[in-house]
Amino acid sequence: xxKIEITILKLAEQNMKLLKYSSYILxxxxxxVLILWLLKLKVDYFGDIELEALVVILSGSVVSLNQxxxxxxxxxxxxxxxxxxxxxxxxxxxxxITQLKENGEVKPILFxxxxxxxxxxxxxxxxxxxxxxxxxxxxxxxxxxAPKSARSRDVLTIQKNPDKQVYFDFxxxxxxxxNYIDYKIESKENNSNKSxxxxxxxxxxxxxxxxxxxxxxxxxxxxxxKYCDSKMKLF
Length: 235
Known about the structure:
The protein is an alpha/beta fold. It has helices at residues 2-14, 16-38, 51-77, 80-102, 123-135, 177-186, 194-219, and strands at residues 110-113, 139-145, 153-161, 164-169, 225-228. In the C-terminal section; belongs to the bacterial STING family.
């Protein structure tokens, strides 16, 4: 049953505009039929169909359609990560990869840090990760990229030896989700607790990276991206 619900929601998400106008039409038609039934008016257009039966059928259809709309709205409301992923790909990843290729690199590789918790992206924690990399004999540097279609930005470089270099980014745009998580959990009647915040944080992280991956495939830069966690296995 759950699989059927997920499938229906996916189809609805892919056809949002059609769903929207179908909902308007069905609700208007159902309201018209209800008024006719309440006024006990006979309409030849419906033939032998009883208005009472039609009201029941339309009511069920309207309820089902409205439930789908509600679930989609809940999903949209619950996924600010989608908007962050869109901005991250279009305003940073795509321009950066494009610029690196224009600079003559055939297949530049940019690693994206994938935290288990959003708090891992706090500057002090990033400094610790960088220090640990240096202690493992990695050489860290920065290059400035000035893409034509985006603002100039420094990109971290990591080298193990002169022949092996990768680019690296900590997606600190995810830090903006911390206020959202606090607001979302603390607005509940039973108030907040740490486990709920962590659970929501993990869900949003998952949604962010899934959307980043989907967008990267659309932009044909997915082969230039890799992900790593705190173990930092780069080479």
